[in-house]
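User: We ran a pulldown and think these components assemble together. Before we commit to crystallization trials, I'd like a predicted model of the whole complex to look at. Sequences follow.
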Amino acid sequence: MTPALPPFFHVHALETVGSTNAEALRLAAAGAPAGTLVWAREQSGGRGRRGRIWESPPGNLYCSVLLRPSPARADWGQVSFVAAVALAEAVARTAPGIAAQLKWPNDVLVAGRKLAGILLEADGDALVAGIGVNVASHPDGATSLAREGAAVAVPSLLTGIATAFQGWLERWEVAGFTPVRAAWLHRAVGLGGAVQVRLADQTLSGTFTALDEGGALVLDGGRRILAGDVTLAPGA
Ligand code: ATP
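Assistant: Here's a predicted model for the assembly, 236 residues in total across the polymer chains.
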């Protein structure tokens, strides 16, 4: 079934692909327009941040959207928050009763377990936002909409995500990060609590006091973290 998407999107629906992000980047290099959306039923080499693996069996949602954003490249990382907010909104609409929470910088959780992941990759003037949502199944320790009790069809979820994503992207391009930040904070987990942040060369501990105006995590009211792995203290 082909999902009904807003006219901005041009869907490339595939049975299987190595990585939807890699395919979208390939299309970008060949001149594909913004709004190109690669959707696959499964990925044989789904990827996460820093070469990590995104488990991608059939039954879940895997898509990547090609963007050529107008805001400065330095702000493109904010699209990970745009996508997270859109994902949470789409989940709330498609699976009422399931409250998605957002964990800095790019995770979507339900009751502390990972439901979805977001991976941004850029090349030249192209930015690809990859989204994976566990609909039917999930790896150990993670969760899925099915596990949370929601029977959701992947095409309807894709419609919901694409619609919400386009709306939030427009808001971001017009009004900047402020409205995105507010919506993200509304669903944030860990804010005000103890966190550990693993950086490339060290691990910092402190209180997650704020999300700054650009999307950085503020530790103990001072140090700004732009990229890292966050572990929340138990009960946060
Ligand atoms: P973390 O969530 O551990 O902080 P991360 O945000 O860097 O990691 P991503 O790069 O978004 O994570 O995703 C890769 C990681 O997510 C993997 O290392 C694995 O731990 C986990 N993972 C892999 N596949 C799935 C999946 N289908 N659902 C939930 N989690 C997954």
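The domain at 194-232 is CATH 2.30.30 (SH3 type barrels.). That may be worth checking against your pulldown data before setting up trials.

User: Thanks, that helps.
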